[in-house]
Amino acid sequence: MKWLIGIVITTALAISTGPGHAQVVDKKALTLEGARQVIATAIGEARRLQAPGGVIAVVDDGGNLVALERLDGTFPAGAAIAIGKARTAAIFRQPTGTFEDIIRSGRTPMLALSDFTPLQGGVPLVVGEEVVGAIGVSGAASAQQDEAIALAGAAAARALKPGLAGAATTRKVTFIDSRMVAAGFDKGAVLVNTGHYMVHASHRDADGIAELHTLDTDIIYVLEGAATLVTGGGVPEARPTEPNELRGPTIVGGDSRRVVKGDVIVVPAGVPHMFTDVHGPLNYYVVKVR
Questions:
Q1: Of 133, 116, 128, whose CA–CA distance to 56 is shortest?
Q2: DSSP character for 67?
Q3: What separation in angstroms does the CA of 196 have from each of 131, 160, 188, 208, 217?
Q4: Which of 202, 199, 241, 198 is nearest to 50 (CA)?
Q5: Of 61, 154, 156, 227, whose Cβ has the fewest other Cβ atoms within 10 Å?
Q6: CA dist 238 to 105, 214, 234, Å?
Q7: CATH H-level, domain 203-289: superfamily
Q8: CA-based angle 246:286:260, to the nearest 5?
């Protein structure tokens, strides 16, 4: 069996112990298979954002590299920067964007820290309540896009657990703090991805393209803005962008309706849909159910 999260027994020599004092602890650890799943989700987000390139690095909780993928077209230094972001997020247990903000506010002595990359795009990977590693992304179109891709990978990590890929989802409550939600809506990002359902914080400032999901039903809740949603019809120039996903420039013969704040729309799997005439910013949640 391939385990997405391995259980590592960490031993420690006690200097002074008495009866009942624990001398070993159980600790979750990120495996190669788990790291690959995180990277696969991040790559999917990079493609959705049409990123021109990027390097995605995943490290363990000590900042040691576990896996790395370099997308075509990425500049050579991207790998070192992505690893640095991931390592910083892992060992400090904080998103690297936090340190970039702190330094911009005037705390420049932090730049003297060794092995420290305070650039947006590094996010800790949390399973349950434990940090098991971190993801770092570099080389996308912008720092904000780096972070959006990293947040998608971090969302995938929250679904990792002991067992085979595709096992039943955890019964633990998932909490996403307001800062991560706000960052998600800044450019659009996956907040939760369990393999059975996904919660996406979506943001649009302009018209979209035609989408068709062969397996996922989209439940859309409009938070802000307005747009015309075209559904049904056909996508004459549809092309696969990733497994079970098709995209095309437009829809022919669909139905149009104006959607505004507070509207909820359910788009069944296999039904083409696209946003046009966006009056933005258009922010909306998408819950994808498979």
A1: 133
A2: E
A3: 23, 12, 20, 25, 11
A4: 241
A5: 61
A6: 47, 12, 9
A7: Jelly Rolls (2.60.120.10)
A8: 110
- Identify any residues that bridge with 288 across adjacent strands, giving them in sequence order: 198, 218
Q: Where are the domains of the chain?
A: 27-163+172-177, 203-289
Helix %, strand %, coil % of the chain (to 5): 25, 40, 40
Q: Which amino acid is at 201?
A: A
CATH 1.20.1250.20 fits 27-163+172-177, yes or no: no
DSSP for 20-43, written as a single string? T---EEEEEEE-HHHHHHHHHHHH
The interaxial angle of helices 178-187 and 143-157, nearest 10 deg, is 130
CA distances to 200, 210, 258, 260, 287 from 231, rounded to whole Å, are 19, 9, 11, 16, 17
pLDDT digits (tens, 9 = 90+) for 72-111: 889 889 999 999 999 999 999 999 988 888 888 888 777 7
Distance CA 270, CA 288 (A): 13
Q: Please say whether the beta carbons of 89 and 61 come within 8 A.
A: no
Total residue count of the chain as it appears in this document: 290
Cβ pair 66, 90 in contact under 8 A? no
215-262: per-residue pLDDT in tens?
A: 889 999 999 999 999 999 988 888 888 777 889 999 999 999 999 999
- CA distances (Å), origin 37, targets 34, 40, 64: 5, 5, 17
Question: In the numeric block, which tokens belong to residue 40?
Answer: 């696969």
Q: Which residues pair with 58 in a beta bridge?
A: 67, 135
Prediction pTM value: 0.54
